[in-house]
Write a structure and sequence with these properties.
The structure holds two protein chains of two kinds. Chain A is mainly α. Chain A contains seven helices and one strand; from the N terminus they run βααααααα. By secondary structure, chain B is of the alpha+beta class. Chain B has two domains: 92 residues, Fusion Protein Consisting Of Minor Coat Protein, Glycine Rich Linker, Tola, And A His Tag, Chain: A, Domain 2 (2-Layer Sandwich), CATH 3.30.1150; 113 residues, no CATH class. In chain B, strands 2-5-3-4 form a four-stranded mixed beta sheet, covered by helices on one side. In chain B, helix 4 packs across helix 7 and helix 7 crosses helix 8. Strand 1 of chain A pairs antiparallel with strand 1 of chain B.
Chain lengths: 225, 263
């Protein structure tokens, strides 16, 4: 058995057995998807944070609530999550306030429920695709490992056909197989890092939204008197 | 309450960055993982029944010209001793070099020509018998002086000399290495009884840096399968192959030529 002299990456991929090639293609696709979501989440989380900061600044600078509500309704496409929470709560509040025979406590509770519903929806939108990143991070090393194990099995089966067992006759097969693990790790490591980072960022945003909801409820309650 | 969900921001940017990352990865892989094994220089080790070093070491004969010069210097026997101190150092090197080269039989051939030639001057001017000894001394001095002049010339173009020395030591190291391997393999060979003629077989041998034989491939058969097998067995049996004195001399690929008898 002649040793292949050329071990470029292309050679390694093309020489690999079919199963290993399928695994590598799968992992390449997963890696592509996960990087796409990483960038998308990165942009959206950054944007959500920026918008939250601008809205908080506007809100606590003591503007008129009605003006703020109007601008939020008119400019719905550019509104951030917190602005939408505010909008939902205030809309419910004005609606309930128009009805005469309602307990002030019920009015505040109603607007709080509306805010919570919007909050859930917003969190759902922010957290979308995070589960994908988490599963890529945990599973793709195993997929790569499967490809590697399969490739090494293949290499050793080839070894049994050679009378003289030399390192040179197994080495290329093992190198081919290890490419699968490399791709798996390349997909997994950024996915895990990004998942942890985004989960943390979104948690912080969630606490900000929740505390805003509480504070806004207090403001509404004061408005009742 | 239906809120139209705003678009996820920067989908296009995300796609572009993703492509960028993967193109970068692929480029890094292609450029970084070039495990191209350059075909290393093949060292040839020829196996002969007898040491071929003598045959290769024909150059020494040039010294013989010296005796021809002998007749002239006779009148100046006492002027020459002066160069002695200098030669005393330089001949050392020359002697060492000669020692390193495996030529135990050369000293013998040299004296003979000298003996043949001295008689000629003796016939022409039949001097005293004591002169024989003096002659011998003179010849020695002459030799050393000739070497001294030669080394002086070497000193003159020192750089060239150094280069030559390096080259020669390199060659010598290679020859040493080859002869080591040759010796070890030859010690392990068992020649098949039915050997006719003097067929040559060529083997390509891969070795590890430790000298362990990885693979032996028959490059050109000798035409006698039994002999081929015997040689291959011998090469494998001498498995850790001797290492060269200079690690730089090491080659992973050896080409071993084997001829059962010297031509």
């Amino acid at each position: 058995m002649n040793v292949t002299q050329d071990l470029s990456i292309l050679h390694l991929i093309l020489q690999a057995s079919a199963v290993v090639q399928v695994v590598m293609a799968l992992l390449a696709g997963i890696s592509f998807m996960s990087w796409y979501y990483i960038f998308m989440k990165w942009f959206s989380v950054r944007q959500a944070r920026n918008k939250t900061e601008t809205f908080e600044r506007d809100f606590w600078s003591g503007g008129d609530l009605n003006n703020m509500y109007n601008s939020a309704v008119n400019d719905r496409h550019h509104a951030g999550s917190m602005e939408r929470i505010f909008e939902a709560g205030f809309r419910e509040f004005t609606k309930l306030k128009g009805q005469k025979n309602l307990d002030p406590k019920d009015i505040v509770d109603g607007s709080r429920r509306a805010m919570r519903a919007t909050y859930q929806r917003e969190m759902d939108a922010l957290e979308s695709h995070l589960a994908f990143l988490a599963s890529v991070g945990s599973v793709s090393p195993y997929i790569g490992l499967f490809g590697t194990v399969w490739g090494i099995m293949h290499a050793f089966r080839g070894l049994s056909n050679v009378g003289q067992a030399t390192l040179a006759s197994v080495a290329p097969g093992i190198a081919e197989a290890l490419v699968a693990t490399a791709i798996g790790l390349f997909a997994a490591i950024p996915a895990v890092l990004a998942y942890n980072r985004f989960a943390h960022d979104i948690d912080r945003l969630a606490t900000r939204y929740e505390s805003f909801m509480e504070e806004f409820s207090n403001i509404l309650q004061r408005q009742m008197r | 309450m239906i809120l139209d969900k705003p678009d996820e921001p920067g989908k296009k940017y995300a796609l572009a960055f993703t492509l960028l990352v993967h193109v970068g990865l692929v480029a890094a892989l292609f450029l970084g993982v070039q495990w191209k094994r350059s075909q290393p220089q093949v060292m040839e080790v020829e196996l002969w029944s007898a040491q071929p070093s003598q045959a290769t070491y024909v150059p020494p004969p040039p010294p013989p010209p010296e005796p021809v010069v002998q007749p002239e210097p006779k009148p100046i026997p006492k002027v020459e001793p002066k160069p002695d101190p200098l030669p005393a150092h330089k001949p050392d090197i020359v002697v060492k070099e000669e020692k390193k080269k495996p030529e135990p039989k050369k000293p013998e051939p040299k004296p003979e020509p000298k003996k043949v030639e001295p008689p000629k001057p003796e016939v022409k001017p039949p001097p005293k018998f004591d002169f024989d000894k003096e002659l011998a001394k003179e010849t020695n001095q002459l030799k050393s002086s000739a070497k001294a002049t030669a080394s002086a010339q070497h000193m003159a173009n020192a750089a060239a000399a150094e280069a030559e020395q390096r080259a020669s030591s390199n060659k010598r190291g290679l020859a040493d290495y080859a002869s080591k391997i040759r010796g070890k393999v030859r010690g392990n060979i068992v020649l098949p009884p039915s050997l006719q003629g003097n067929p040559e077989a060529i083997f390509a041998v891969d070795q590890l840096p430790s000298g362990e034989v990885l693979d032996v491939r028959l490059k050109r058969s000798s035409g006698n399968p039994a002999l081929d097998n015997a040689i291959e067995r011998a090469i494998r049996k001498s498995s850790p192959l001797p290492k060269p004195d200079d690690p730089a001399m090491f080659r992973r690929d050896l080409e071993i030529k084997y001829k059962p008898f010297e031509e």
